[in-house]
Structure formats: structure tokens, C-alpha cells
Amino acid sequence: MPISKLAPFRTRTLARALVSATLALSLALGAATPLPAGQRAWIEVKSPHFRVLTDGSVGDARHLARQFEQMRAVFGVGFPKMRLDTGAILTILAPQNEYDLRDLAPNFWGKSASKVGGIFQDGWERKYAIVRLDQNREGLQYTAVYHEYTHTLLHANFQWLPTWLDEGLAEFYGNSRFEGSKTYVGAPSVHVQLLRQKTLIRLDELIAENPWVKFSNDQDGRDLFYAESWALVHYLMMSPEMGRGAKINQFYKAIMNREPQQKAFQEAFGNFADVEKGLREYVSKFLFSSYSIDNPPQINEKDFPERTMSVAETEAEIGTYRFWSHDRSESRQSIEQALRDDPNQPLAHETLGFLDFADGKDKEASADFAKAVELDPSRFLARFYKAMLAYYSVPNPALDDMRALRTAMYAVTGANNAFAPADVQLAFVMARVGDLQGALVMAQRAEALEPHRAGYHLLVARILIASNYSVGALKEIQFVADRWRGPDRNEAVELWHEVPGTPVPSDEIQVNLSPADLKDPNALAKAIPKTANGTVSSIDCGDKHKLVLQTSSGPQTFTAPEGRTVVGYSDTFWWAGDHFNLCHEATGLRAVVRYKADTAKDGSMGTWTALELREDLPTPMSTAASPAPANAVPTSPAANPASAKPAESRPTPPPPTPKI
């Protein structure tokens, strides 16, 4: 998963479409300033599948919860086999107006802050939807919030989607309208006006583009990409000549069978010229079709229970949100205040653990997590991090340490059976004791829970290689290499070298050249970075981010250039994307460094532009040092209530081909 120096938390905001006249009047009249968000008790409303926290009215919170239930029902009705719950916690925060949103999320308050009506923040372990209650009106919905919620469901069910289809589907469903007892799917979008004013991107280019690369400095270009992706999906989903979505299934099946996307597109939908002509005519229509879904009978917002939280619990919830928003200073203030008000507040102890962990205070973090679990045994994140910190505090883990880790991970999955990182750690434990069949079962379960994580597919491949099943391993490796880009693809290519007798593609390295650079015939050769492999010995997080890599020829030193550098890491690392800290987590890890060589006076090899951290399958323990693996760690996942099938019911390698 590649990231930049900035935090990887994915955020989408929604421009406000309506200014609250009541709020404007109250400000003009000098109304009393309300207390900050964490100094008053909020209300919790629970629907069957969602939790809304608000400082507004119970009625508004229930109405919002009902809308999320309607959005979820769109997928439940349209895709009966779709998994609608993920391992990450989704919390809906509903401040009642602009002032409260500004107080809750100060990080997002900039030049366009007064236009913010909704925010969705997508993390590995927690997700937040933040919506303003004073903008929750029928017909005025939070399209950006529902867009990102759609992404969470798509990514939990599909191994990979082309960017245009991923974004187009999210825009299509994100524009759903909730009116009374019905939900209208396929409602028109504000994109229509833009598309009627602009020249469309050629379809052969649209389906092949990575908009974040091609339009990295072109907001208008990105807007057009999103708009056209929405229009194309709407056309394919709703027009009779495209089978009202049937041809999308044909297209998806073809690309999952490794058929080139352009060929699969034309076989499913027709040649590009004809589809473009049909799309232009479709966009120019005055009316767009949609379909309606009745609310499920169990969704009656008046039945949703509510309660008033304590001030300490409110402070803990807001402080936790601020931590996951990477506003750690504000987060710590809220969490410490929560613990002053209530020393036994479990969420506050858990978040304090994450704050200490982020500061590199592992001993303090471990104690914080232990206290959170003592106060509330259902806190699966505190359980997970407490166990991982204990395991990695031991220089050379022995059999008893692995038994303890196994027991802890089963407790985590017992509290949240969709939390894939626990299955990854169980796979590592089983591989460590030589039980590759048990490791494969757990790795495949993690892969099924989080199919969009390239590293989980590669973990399955590593276990298959260790099991001498190269055919199955190669399918997993090729699947990632064909579809992912950057560090994920490079990790797949590296693993490909371990499969004998197959041609291996080269690494993918991004090079940015200006028009002026292209005048030099040697510009490309000069721009391609060199590569070094080894183990990270140290990272100095000073101004130059000096990195020391232990290689086969000895230590090599690199410094970071001014501006952006890229860091990528295996998805299987236990600290995941929400908690990665280059200064604390990278030391001791195997790494690939991309660097630009120069003759620096400080003796360094040059400036590093990309760092790719890799996690290998653990080396099996020596049989002389421990009892037989089967006796050491029970291999049957039947001991885990969250597991898919008992190990004895599965065939020995070769295993079945992973399912789509």
C-alpha cells in the first residue's frame, strides 16, 4: 500500500449546497456561543446496523440513521450475496450546524470550510461519516459521504475494479435519493451540466487512466473523469441497449480472467466509437431513468433506541475521532480530559494507547490497551494491539509466546469475526510452527474478508510457494501484478522470481519529466532511480530523513530530497495503515530503496525517493527446539468461531482456486 509523507487516511468532503438562514440570522444577532463539542454530552442513536452520535435532536439523528439503513438496503436488495459489514468500525458523527462541525473537525477548516456539509474518512480499522444535521433535507443528500460508503462495500466484496468502474459505481449509488418510504437509485447528478459543457474523454483513454496520476495537478481533469465515469456507469446500468447492467457482469468476468480491459470492454459493450456515440446522446437527454426500492419493513426510525452519553464518553468519542483524523494534539487533550472526568472510560484508555504507540512509547501503550480490555473485554482493537506489543517485545519468541499470540488472536476474532489482521497473524503463527495447511486456511480467510488488499493475495502466494504449489502461487502473483500499481505491483514482481520457469516482468517505477526535460535525449535514463536492497538499520527523522540500509556489501546511507517521497509497505504488517510511523516502525524491516545517486559530501549514496518495506513469511521453528507443530499450535480453525471451515474439511495442497 503506497503512501506519501502525509497520513494515508482517505477523506472526501461534500460542498454545502444550502446555507442555513437560521444559523446566519443567529450569528448576525450575536447569539450565545455554544460550548465546544467535547464539553457537553452528546446523544447516541442506534439503528439495526448503524450508530449515530449527535449534539442535535434525537429525531434528526434517527432520520439520519434511517437514511444510512436505506443506503445499506440498496445493496442488500440489489446484491443479495454481497457482504454488507466490514471489520472496520463505522461511526456516524452528526454535529447540528456549521459551528459544531468546525469545532469537531478543525483540521478540515480552511478557505472552503463554510461549504463543508459532510466528510467521510476511510481508515483500516475505523471509518467515520461526519454530516451536518442542518443540511439533512429530503432531496439534499450527502453524495460524497454515500460515495465513499459505497466504496467500502465494493472493496469488501470485489478483488479489484478498474478505476473508472470503481468511481463510476460509487458516484451512481452515492447519488441515491431518499424520499419518504422509498429510495431512488440512479438519480441524476450535478455532473450532467459539466458533461454537457465539456468534450468527453475518449473511452479508450478513460478506461485506462489513473486519474490521480494523469490529473495530479488538474482539478478540472479529475472532475471530468469522475463525471464521465458516473455517466458511463449510468448508461451501462440503465439503458436497455446495454442490458441494464447485464453487460457489466460480462465485462467483469472477462477482466477477472486476465483478458485485457480494452478487449473485454469492446466484447461486452461494443466498439469504442459506437459506445461513445451512445454515451453522448445519453448525456444530452433531458430525463434520466432511475429505479426505486421500498424501505425494508424493519426500518422504522421511531423504534431506534437512544440514550444520552456522559460527558466523559462524549470526550472519548471526539478524541478518538480526532486521533483517526491525525489531529493528535487535540485528540490527547480530549482523551486526557475524558480520563480526568472518568478514569474508567475504556475507549479513552484504548485511544490513549494509540496516542502513546504513535509517540513510540510501546510500554505505556501496552498498559493503556490492557486497561481498556480489563474495563471492556469486547474492545477488539485494544486486544489486538496489546497482544502484538507483547509478542514483539520478546527478541526471540518461543513456543509459549506463539501459543499466547494464537489465543489472543482467537479472542480478537471472537469479538470481531471480520477483522482480517487477526487472521493474518494466525497465518504467521501457523507458518512459524510449520503448519502450512493451517496457515493457508487463515490467509485465505483474510483474503476473502479484505479482497482489495494486494498484500493478502501475496501472503497466500508465499504460503503456496512454501507448500511447493507454484501453479496456485503464480495465479495469485499475476493477479496482483496485472491489476495493482507501484509498490504493491513491485512486491508481486519480486515474489514472482521465486516461481521457477516463468518470465518475470520488470518493476514499475514512476518518473516525472517536464517538457523542458524531454529536450535532453538522456533525460529518461538520468531520471530512472537506482535500487538498493537490504534491512533498515536506522532512520533519522530530522530534516533530511537520513536512512541507513544494511546491504550485502555493508551499510549504505541515503538522505531524503526536498518535497514528496513515496513509502510503500506490505499490507500484512500488523500496525496497518492507520498507525504507520516511518520513525518508529521501519527499523529492522527488509526494504527496497529507490534513490538518485549523487556525489554528496556527507558520504551518502544519494537521495532516496521511494522506500518499499516488505514482510516475508516467517521461518519455521527448528524441530529440535520445539515439539511437533501439530501439538504446539492446534491447526484446526474450528477452534476459532470465526473461521470458515475446519482444516480437515479442506483438501491438502493444491487448494481450490480463490473465488471472486
Structure description:
This protein has 660 residues and is an alpha+beta fold. The strands form 3 sheets. It has a 7-stranded mixed beta sheet, covered by helices on one side. It has 26 helices and 17 strands. The protein is globular and about 70 Å long.
Secondary structure layout:
Layout: E1 2-4, E2 10-15, H1 21-28, E3 43-46, E4 51-54, H2 58-78, E5 89-94, H3 98-104, E6 116-122, E7 126-131, H4 143-157, H5 163-174, E8 177-179, E9 182-185, H6 191-197, H7 203-206, H8 211-214, H9 219-238, H10 246-256, H11 261-269, H12 272-283, E10 291-294, E11 306-308, H13 311-324, H14 328-341, H15 346-358, H16 362-375, H17 380-392, H18 399-415, H19 420-432, H20 436-449, H21 454-466, H22 470-483, H23 487-496, H24 523-527, E12 530-540, E13 546-551, E14 554-559, E15 566-569, H25 582-585, E16 590-597, E17 606-614, H26 629-632
Parallel strand pairs: 4-5, 5-7, 14-17, 15-17
Antiparallel strand pairs: 1-15, 2-6, 3-4, 3-11, 6-7, 8-9, 9-10, 12-13, 12-16, 13-14, 16-17
Helix pairs in contact: 4-5, 5-9, 6-9, 10-11, 13-14, 13-15, 14-15, 15-16, 16-17, 17-18, 18-19, 19-20, 20-21, 21-22, 21-23, 22-23
